[in-house]
Task: inverse folding
């Protein structure tokens, strides 16, 4: 088996499956990353999709990527308990090589209609995150990882994100999905050189790398645009350069994953471009596989130490998250959102709203309002 596995993020979406099918037929896709919790409305998988997942599971080339757990929710929710039960059951059906989730907490009241946003890097947030990761590890019995977040409120958060991930993951011997397009968003949005940013991450914890595309969004400041991790376009040239630069610095890297949403794959041209990006990524993996020897990779096996007692909570954090979600989802203008924040419990707190970048507050409003559940 090759050291680096060229992987597609493949879910039950007709456009995405149409783009991936030639890669499966030719044997070019070494592995699949499956967002197992995206099918919450289905009672059962279609038989043909079940067979596809089974085939990669049997070859120990299946990894699971969660979306909706809301790792840093200040209050423990019934939806999180149900998510863990579903995870435990699905891990009995399929052999996942590892399980991952997104960093952040979900806006909105319904976990399936939200977007992950950052939290203050406090002891309370650390305690909650470590507790939740322990529960995920206990439910799946597999190595557990977190994906770095594309969104940050301030440049200070950008610089501290890698260290906070390291501290979060240490008790479960966890790993990082290093999403290079997420780093690209922060490089351009906060004007930080890639090398500076990469040096702030514990690269010895990287087991998986994501590459994807995104989009540019206008800002109220006409002199700038905001890079968004929307997964709806081809991979930028810069992200491929990042990939080639970072692979030698990640000694335990196992999976390279190409991501794109089906909404960006509705035409034959877009599907062709997706496969071209995958093949370029796979070629980089092949070159590295030729150069490297038979090194033993870190397995990131979690310790058998399930969390005891009730899930960790911080009701003050929960209240602040609820206030923030409401402000972002309902403010008509940036100015209205900013006034509401200054009058909220987030003002003069660990959230440091006074130091938030205005263009990221704009972006958070757009994200929250896009995902807000419509009545």
Result:
């Amino acid at each position: 088996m090759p050291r680096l596995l060229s992987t597609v993020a493949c879910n039950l979406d007709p456009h995405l499956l149409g783009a991936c099918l030639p890669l499966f037929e030719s044997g070019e896709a070494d592995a699949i990353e499956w967002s197992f919790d995206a099918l919450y409305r289905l009672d059962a998988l279609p038989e043909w999709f079940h067979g596809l997942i089974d085939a990669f599971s049997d070859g120990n080339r299946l990894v699971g990527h969660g979306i909706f757990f809301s790792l840093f929710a200040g209050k423990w929710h019934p939806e999180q308990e149900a998510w863990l039960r579903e995870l435990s059951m699905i891990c009995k059906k399929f052999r996942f090589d590892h399980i991952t989730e997104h960093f952040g907490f979900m806006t909105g009241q319904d976990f399936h209609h939200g977007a992950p946003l950052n939290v203050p890097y406090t002891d309370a947030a650390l305690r909650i995150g470590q507790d939740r990761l322990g529960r995920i590890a206990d439910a799946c019995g597999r190595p557990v990882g977190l994906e770095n977040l594309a969104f940050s409120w301030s440049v200070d958060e950008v610089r501290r994100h890698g260290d906070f991930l390291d501290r979060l993951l240490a008790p479960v011997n966890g790993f990082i999905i290093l999403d290079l397009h997420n780093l690209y968003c922060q490089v351009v949005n906060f004007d930080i050189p890639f090398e500076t940013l990469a040096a702030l991450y514990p690269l010895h914890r990287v087991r998986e790398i994501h590459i994807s595309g995104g989009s540019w969004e206008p800002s109220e400041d006409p002199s700038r645009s905001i890079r968004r991790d929307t997964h709806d376009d081809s991979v930028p040239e810069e992200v491929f350069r990042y990939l080639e630069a970072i692979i030698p610095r990640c000694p335990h890297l196992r999976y390279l994953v190409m991501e794109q949403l089906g909404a960006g794959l509705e035409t034959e041209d877009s599907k062709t471009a997706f496969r071209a990006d995958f093949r370029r990524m796979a070629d980089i993996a092949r070159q590295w596989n030729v150069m490297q020897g038979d090194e033993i990779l870190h397995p990131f096996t979690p310790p058998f130490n399930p969390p005891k007692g009730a899930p960790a909570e911080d009701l003050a954090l929960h209240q602040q998250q609820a206030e923030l979600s409401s402000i972002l989802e309902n403010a008509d203008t940036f100015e209205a959102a900013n006034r509401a924040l200054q009058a909220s419990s987030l003002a003069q707190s660990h959230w440091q709203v006074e130091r938030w970048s205005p263009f990221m507050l704009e972006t958070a409003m757009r994200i929250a309002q896009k995902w807000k559940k419509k009545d």
Remarks:
- The longest strand covers residues 206-211.
